[in-house]
Structures are given as C-alpha cells and as structure tokens.
Specification:
Blueprint (H helix, E strand, L loop, with lengths): L18 H16 L9 H17 L3 H18 L7 H15 L4 H17 L4 H15 L3
Helix pairs in contact: 1-2, 2-3, 2-5, 3-4, 3-5, 4-5, 5-6
C-alpha cells in the first residue's frame, strides 16, 4: 500500500488548496475562536498553535496574506537588530518569545499574537535549529496543500 502523497493523488490530502486559502481559513478560525460568541472558543494552547501555523501559512501565501506575514516577521527582525537592546539576535528573540509564551499571563488573543511572532522569529532565524522546527511545521501545511 502506498501513501497518499507517494501515490501522487493530488497536491494535498484534502484536494487542491493554496496557502492563501489556508491563510483565510486560519484567520476566520482565529477570529471566531477568539472573539466569536459561539459554543466553542479557542483555549490558550490551541490559540498559540493557530497563530503559529497562521504565520507560516501567511509566509507561504501570495498577495495580501504574504504581505501580512512579512510585516509580522519584520517585528522580531527589528527587535533582534536593535542596537538599543544590545543586538540580541534572532535566537535571543525566539527564546524570549518562548519564555513569554510559557510564563506570561496570556489570554487566547495574546496567545495568537505570541504564536505568530514566534513563528515569524523562528522562520527568520537562518542557519539555526529553529529552522528545523519550521521545516517540520511547514510539512504539516504541505499535507493540506499550502
């Protein structure tokens, strides 16, 4: 038996879907999961994961989602290179974001933001172990075609 991807049964497990489509789906899920008045809301952990994967989808998308992802990615880049902060570097920014994610009092909205900033910082950290984490995470996006 061959796997779905090895058999070439399409571009994804769900059928053809672009990274822009995945970005829009994640945005809608985040909005309704954080702000919505429905029966279900995102808890903190899933909210951080949604933000993380949303940023990765933004960076893989075209058009306005890519522009949004690039703008989010510029935030940790500016912090890493800021001489007033001692030019702490991208690894320092990633570790600070991970510490804040673990210990700062967060609500789902700020969890989404920390997730986005963490993914942006990890993907901007060229030549580091953080890129390996991003490679594994983007493999998951590849399964849905993004």
């Amino acid at each position: 038996m061959t796997s779905l991807l090895a058999a070439g049964a399409g571009s994804s497990a769900l059928g053809p879907m672009s990274a822009t489509t995945v970005s829009v789906i994640l945005i809608v899920t985040i909005i309704y999961g954080v702000k919505g008045k429905g029966k279900k809301k995102l808890a903190l952990g899933p909210a951080q994961a949604m933000g993380f994967f949303a940023e990765l989808a933004f960076l893989r998308a075209t058009g306005w989602p890519h522009d949004l992802g690039t703008a989010i990615q510029d935030i940790p880049r500016q912090v890493a290179a800021n001489p007033d902060l001692g030019s702490i570097g991208m690894t320092g920014v990633v570790i600070i974001l991970l510490v804040l994610s673990a210990f700062a009092p967060l609500v789902p909205f700020t969890g989404v933001l920390w997730g986005m900033l963490t993914a942006a910082a990890m993907s901007a950290a060229e030549g580091s172990v953080w890129r390996a984490i991003i490679s594994v995470a983007t493999a998951a996006l590849s399964l849905v075609g993004a």
